[in-house]
Design goal:
heterodimer; A: 288 residues; alpha/beta; Rossmann fold; B: 274 residues; mainly alpha; 2 domains; 0% strand
């Protein structure tokens, strides 16, 4: 247990390098009828460059709200979010989100979807075509470039969506439960696919999930959120070696980390259950 | 997919001809033929058996002969031309005015709140109820027919487009904004294609409404056209010709709906069944 040292700030573990994304004291509440429902309460964490950070917490705790704030779709009530020192105030292609539901444009082919960002930014035709070819080959969809999203399988849709984001060279890639709803096999393949991509490119990634196995297998840092209103409960450094492999899920270190993190999650899930959110409890207790 | 499968099967059996015959005599076509033949047979039987009231109808054969006679006159075909011209022009104007209006009403809340209350009051008035005012208001009968044929589909189109725009998933807009889309990109690349299925639904329903109104308007105010032809047959007591008129109107409406459907399928390749 000694090796699992909870860190206050993920970036403290980094070698003094300034973090890419700083979330500082962020709070957000929503009006529900007449009363204000606090959703995020004084959340603070940093995301270091070139690391894969994972936000995990019980269902409905406010993970997606946090993503919407970082993406710039909504503004926090208080606190600040900065990317490379510049405050986040609007959506931008330096922070791209892949959502749990597909947002591929159904009226565009795979190719048209992927080059959408280049087109609206006026990237020259030839450069755009080369980039698209490169990225589509990388995700293994070059032969499918003229298909429409509805003609693709779930996994292919996810990869198209990744390609549509990656072609814009984002500074931060945000994945909001991107593999939810895929069958177990496809999900494993997609996890492996993204890990390989990450380990090759070192693209700073913020990943959201409620599945601990997935989280520990993929992450450098684990940001554990509490039940509503979400606070940062703890930030765990996952120091499993890279490249990661599924066999590591049988290692002692993985097992220790999993046990420790599960203890924290179950505490929160129980609170969620007492608040009447039975689904959150089920999700965790089925893993126990 | 299915076309390929059909071709494949055809070539196994014995070349292109057999696949062509198979296609033409598909189950759907056969069902259609059986249904039509049964209808005509029932009609013939009902008139032959002197079933009360129904036996006032002419025999199918008489209608067929009347159709043959009418098809030999230029007047019959001029009626077609007159009606189709009115439908085409009015319907296109209704699209040109209605689609942008619906788009803006769907996208801008203030604009919708400004226009929609008037819409809600005027819309429930059946287009046919506009006939007296239209005849008095417009200088020529022809113009009043155009105006009436415009009003019918206009409301249907505006409302469909408006709801279509409003129902576009906000996540598409968000994704586009994240990828760097400007407001004009959002309109042309997201809103318009996203609303296209609703625009086509509006067109499909609208073309039906347009024929409804046109025929009523022609009967009351027209000098020519399929509606007028049918009405004149009534004043002359020519029952077979009345039925010829009705069938012609039905066929014309069907052709127009098919055309709209064809346009729809070509505008929205992503909605084809694969």
């Amino acid at each position: 247990m000694a090796e699992i040292a909870p860190l206050l700030r993920a970036s403290d573990g980094g070698a003094g390098q300034d973090p890419l994304l700083c979330v500082a004291g962020v709070s957000k509440s929503f009006r529900e009828g007449d009363e204000h429902q606090a959703c995020l309460d004084n959340c603070s964490f940093d995301i270091a460059r070139g690391e894969l950070s994972i936000i995990i917490g019980p269902s409905g705790c406010g993970k997606t709200t946090l993503i919407n704030l970082i993406a710039g779709y909504e503004l926090p009530d208080s606190g600040s979010i900065t990317l490379d020192g510049a405050p986040v105030s609007a959506p931008s292609f330096d922070r791209l989100v892949v959502f749990q539901e597909t947002t591929l444009f159904p009226w565009m082919t795979v190719y048209a979807n992927v080059v959408f960002g280049c087109k609206v930014k006026g990237v020259p035709q030839q450069e755009m075509q080369e980039k698209a070819k490169h990225i589509l080959s990388k995700v293994g969809l070059y032969e499918f470039r003229d298909k429409y999203p509805s003609q693709l399988s779930g996994g292919m849709q996810r990869r198209t969506e990744l390609a549509r984001a990656l072609i814009n060279d984002p500074k931060l890639m945000i994945l909001d439960e991107p593999f939810r709803g895929l069958d177990a096999m496809t999900k494993e393949l997609m996890q492996e696919f993204y890990l390989t991509l990450f380990e090759e490119t070192g693209l700073t990634t913020l990943f959201v999930t409620h599945e601990l196995e997935e989280a520990i297998f993929m992450a450098d840092n684990l940001v554990l959120l509490t039940h509503k209103p979400a606070r940062v409960k703890e930030i765990l450094k996952i120091d499993l070696p890279r490249p990661r492999h599924f066999s590591m899920m049988a290692s002692k270190k993985y097992f220790d980390l999993h046990g420790y993190a599960m203890g924290l999650l179950v505490e929160e899930a129980k609170r969620a259950f007492e608040d009447g959110n039975a689904i959150a409890f089920d999700a965790v207790s089925s893993l126990e | 997919m299915s076309v390929n499968a059909l071709k494949l099967r055809g070539s196994n059996v014995g070349g292109k001809i057999s696949s062509y015959v198979r296609g033409a005599l598909s189950v759907k076509t056969l069902e259609g033929i059986v249904s039509l033949v049964a209808f005509v047979a029932l009609w013939q039987a009902a008139v032959s058996l002197r079933i009360p009231y129904i036996s006032n109808l002419p025999f199918p054969g008489q209608v067929w002969n009347s159709l043959g006679e009418a098809a030999g006159t230029s007047g019959y075909w001029l009626s077609w031309v007159a009606s189709l011209k009115r439908i085409l022009i009015s319907f296109i104007i209704a699209q040109v005015v209605g689609v942008p209006l619906g788009l803006f009403m769907g996208m801008s809340k203030p604009f919708r709140q400004l226009i929609f209350p008037v819409f809600e009051i005027v819309r429930p008035i059946p287009p046919i109820a506009w006939i007296p005012l239209a005849i008095l208001f417009w200088p020529t009968e022809e113009l009043s027919i155009y105006a009436l044929t415009f009003i019918g589909p206009f409301f249907v189109i505006v409302l469909n487009v408006m709801q279509g725009v409003a129902s576009i998933d906000q996540s598409f807009k968000r994704a586009a904004l994240s990828l760097g889309a400007k407001p004009s990109d959002i309109f042309w690349k997201i809103m318009l294609p996203g609303a296209l299925p609703s625009i086509l639904t509006g067109m499909t329903v609208g073309i039906g409404v347009a024929w409804n109104v046109l025929i009523a308007a022609e009967m009351i105010a027209g000098r020519n056209g399929l509606g007028r032809m049918t009405w004149e047959a009534y004043t002359n007591g020519n029952i077979p010709l009345i039925i010829v008129g009705m069938i012609s109107i039905g066929v014309a409406g069907y052709l127009c709906s098919s055309l709209v459907r064809l346009i729809g399928e070509n505008c929205m390749p992503w909605q084809r069944r694969f």
